[in-house]
Automatic annotation (TrEMBL):
This is Dehydrogenase/reductase SDR family member 12-like. The gene is LOC107555069. It holds the Pfam family adh_short. Transmembrane segments: none annotated. InterPro entries: NAD(P)-bd_dom_sf, SDR_fam, SDR_member_12.
Length: 352
């Protein structure tokens, strides 16, 4: 009898999970078709204030990760055009040099610097942050780097690749993996917060994704060791982690303005390579790289953005909810804190 009841409860729970997942995915897709496309951007842009980006940022220093293409490169161009000192953090030397050349040509600003960092190695992330802090000031950190790995793979440190890049901060082969990116984001941000606090009006912007709306934080399986692996869902889970990290940092470090954002569905090299089927179906509706980068730039330089409360999630220059209606994706403060504690424990292991 007890075994029968337990089987019934497990079966019922599985049905609820599948049903909720289907609900979230359906609502998110409909939302995306309306808001995340080029048409969604153009509709939102009608209410933008041009004056928000009419800002000179000469003398301010910006780090942008994943800046050799896509949204990162587009953001670098816009910031450089306004006089900012831009530090491009990249892995591939040839692509980084080409990106710098393009940014300088478009902006007429020579204060664009390349930093080559092996983001597949968390120790190198710590080393970069330490060296940068000793030699440069920093006003704005833009955590942009990342992409999707479609099968579960481990780094040489036994970190799941997606997590290591999207959360802790790790780049593997030609692409950021999800766990690695979360670790990369955590390490780089944590290491640079003391430097940011020395500057006027410091900011941290993390490029997340609206895809995180389909996921509830799961602190019991950060490296996707349980069940079958789904790269798309792992990516969404890591983007949820980044949003929660932003909220937690905002609460802990009042001197720094933190924000996360969704760039919409943009036509970038990462989308073309990681999501070929999606790209084939949606390519005529995707945003340009500049449109995807618009809110990144707005958060990085505008006075209007800095007056927003710290820790919010933005889409098209507006703070938006981090949860879909009735989606049961909220977590407890204890779960959020557990995420931060586990990231700290992992990150410290790689600190020299």
């Amino acid at each position: 009898m007890l075994k029968s009841r337990m089987t019934s409860l497990v079966s019922s729970s599985c049905v609820e999970i599948v049903t909720m997942s289907l609900y979230r995915n359906t609502v998110w897709l409909l939302k995306g078709l309306q808001e995340y496309t080029k048409g969604g951007y153009e509709a939102a842009a009608r209410s933008f204030s041009e004056a928000d980006l009419e800002v000179a940022v000469s003398g301010r220093s910006f780090i942008i990760t994943g800046a050799n293409s896509g949204i990162g490169k587009a953001a670098a161009c816009e910031i450089a055009k306004r006089g900012g000192t831009v530090h491009l953090v990249c892995r591939n030397e040839d692509r980084a040099k080409e990106a710098r050349k393009d940014v300088v040509e478009q902006s007429k600003n020579e204060n664009v610097h390349v930093h080559l960092v092996d983001m597949s190695n968390p120790r190198k992330v710590w080393e970069f942050a330490s060296g940068f802090s000793q030699n440069h000031n920093l006003h704005v950190l833009i955590n942009n780097a990342g992409c999707m790995v479609n099968q579960r793979e481990l780094t040489e440190d036994d970190l799941e690749k997606n997590f290591a890049t999207n959360t802790l901060g790790r780049k593997v082969n030609s692409c950021f993996s999800d766990l690695t990116l979360v670790i990369w984001t955590y390490i780089l941000t944590t290491a640079l917060i003391p430097t940011l606090k020395k500057s006027e009006n410091p900011r941290v912007i993390t490029v997340s994704s609206g895809g995180m709306l389909v996921q509830k934080l799961n602190v019991e399986d950060l490296q996707f060791e349980k069940g079958s692996f789904d790269g798309t869902m792992a990516y969404a889970q890591n983007k949820r982690q980044q949003v929660i990290m932003t909220e937690q940092w905002a609460a802990q470090h009042k001197e720094v303005h933190f924000s996360s954002m969704h760039p919409g569905w943009a036509d970038t090299p990462a989308v073309r390579s990681s999501m070929p089927d999606f790209y084939a179906k949606m390519k005529n509706k995707l945003r340009t790289e500049a449109q995807g980068a618009d809110t990144v730039v707005w958060l990085a330089i505008s006075d209007t953005a800095s007056r927003q409360p710290s820790g919010l999630f933005f889409q098209d220059r507006k703070a938006v909810s981090t949860h879909l209606p009735l989606a049961s994706s909220r977590t407890s403060p204890a779960e959020d804190q557990k995420l931060m504690s586990e990231l700290e424990e992992l990150a410290v292991k790689f600190k020299s």
